[in-house]
Design brief:
285 residues; 7-stranded antiparallel sheet; 7 helices; 32% helix
């Protein structure tokens, strides 16, 4: 029975296999400032799928996940269908991005009071759960824990917070042994047919996380990163108004970005990327 296309995201195409299973196919599309750019990054979709498969396998003891199988193309994952929660589960271990902006303005982030005198990129005293709404268009919006509790219920939110922080802490510890700091990340959790929490979507990829090289980490400034930073920087320099359509990317920006995605994959998994392309199940242990 052929799969039926049911949805398109910025990066992924979603197909129904049957009533219980979906196929998630990660394209090589790249978005920045919420616009999908006309130029693709070769192999980016394989990096996202392979890294997610690696983390799903490594972190399975903390919470079950939706992965059923990786397909031979390395970019397609068969998954259980879930009823996804209407919040993004963001965990921050370091003060960066919108968390840093909030702190500069209010001394807090998402309702969490923080010590005075922190610098940009400082490690936080402990990882913080800072939920966000899922925006259908435009940016996700940071919300307070009270607002999140209104969306999912206080008891469910407490369980989501505990699981999200445990996932982040385990992943951050592993990444540090590979020379990568995970500054923050975003999880998506859903419910299975029995109402149990299950980790879905992608996990701990350069698209859903802020990865920094540990050897050049220095608080007080913006850090180098393993994600879309070169793409963002290029787009900022063009004078683009951040409305669709976005600018075409030159070859050097494309290849530099590709190399960063692949470097993150190889460091975290210890699997050479060509070996993954040859046999995607290598990431499953």
């Amino acid at each position: 029975m052929p799969e039926t296309h049911i949805a398109s995201g910025k990066v992924r195409e979603i197909y129904a296999i049957d009533d219980d299973r979906l196929l998630l196919v990660a394209s090589d599309r790249i978005s920045t400032f919420d616009v999908v750019l006309p130029t693709e990054i070769p192999d980016k979709g394989r990096v996202l799928t392979g890294l997610s498969g690696f983390w799903f396998t490594l972190l399975h003891a903390i919470v079950p996940n939706h992965m059923l199988a990786l397909r031979e193309d390395g970019r397609s994952m068969e998954c259980r269908r879930l009823e996804m929660l209407p919040i993004e589960c963001v965990v921050r271990g370091y003060l960066a991005g919108s968390g840093w902006k909030d702190y500069q303005a209010t001394g807090m982030t998402s309702g969490h009071s923080l010590p005075e005198g922190l610098q940009e990129s400082d490690k936080l005293p402990e990882p913080l759960f800072t939920p966000a709404t899922k925006a259908q268009t435009g940016h996700d919006e940071n919300i307070s824990r009270d607002e999140a509790a209104e969306l999912v219920g206080a008891e469910r939110l407490a369980e989501v917070e505990r699981i999200s922080i445990a996932l982040y802490a385990a992943a951050a510890d592993h990444a540090l042994t590979r020379g990568i700091i995970i500054a923050d990340t975003k999880f998506e959790l859903g419910l299975d047919a029995d109402g149990a929490l299950v980790l879905g979507d992608e996990a701990l990829t350069p698209d859903s996380s802020r990865f920094w090289p540990a050897d050049s980490y220095e608080p007080g400034r913006t850090q180098d990163s393993f994600d879309k930073q070169f793409v963002r920087d290029f787009c900022e320099q063009t004078g683009w108004d951040k409305a669709d359509p976005g600018p075409e990317l030159p070859e050097d920006v494309v290849m530099h970005t590709r190399s960063k995605y692949i470097e993150a994959f190889e460091r975290l998994t210890t699997i050479p990327f060509p070996a993954y392309r040859e046999n995607p199940s290598a990431v499953l242990g």
